[in-house]
Amino acid sequence: MDRPSKIVIIGTGGMGRETLWIAQAHNAARPDQAFEICGFLTCEKELHGSPVCGIPVLGAEDWVEGREGIAAVCAIGDPRARRKIVQQLEGKGVAFVALLHPSAQISEYVTLGVGGVISANAVVTTQVSIGNHVIINANATVSHDAVLEDFVTLAPGVQVTGGVCVEYGAELGANSVVLPRKRIGRGAVVGAGAVVTRDVQANTVNAGVPARMVRNLPAELWM
Length: 223
Prior knowledge:
By secondary structure, this protein is an alpha/beta fold. 13% of the residues lie in helices and 30% in strands. Strand 23 (204-207) and strand 24 form a beta hairpin.
């Protein structure tokens, strides 16, 4: 489809409100490519019909289904919840767009999937592959030859160094660091401030300096 001119933001929590700010900053910097921000969507019925940050809450996530010319951005920080919503809506034909804050520095040699959110002062250098529905928060850095697979979340201040692979749905906590050429397994969680010095197993929680596995995630939470 052609680039949509209208968007809705899924989620009214902190990530949703930050994503609104990113969209507004994009519109101010690139009026020729501005989006009309139609409103928020959330399953929290008590918010329906009320404004959040001056933007109306239109209804639940399925409000966007069947509305031509309106795309969505899923601004849910939890990668598991984000994946569930995206898969439901994509199955109904809903399109998604990426939003990038104008202060983010992104090399021309970066490939970027659909539906992602890249926040203020993020830096993504060269030959980096970013999958679909990836969230890169403020001041995070992603260095050369790194791979971020679909539904990855980088919290503020994360440092992903060269040659790192962050697999599907993994989540890196604020100010965590991943040393070069390490692999973060599918669905893994790395705690805030951790330093990853060796590969991280899939569907585990890891913390500390150096990072060590704290526990396995329950099977129902596996990505």
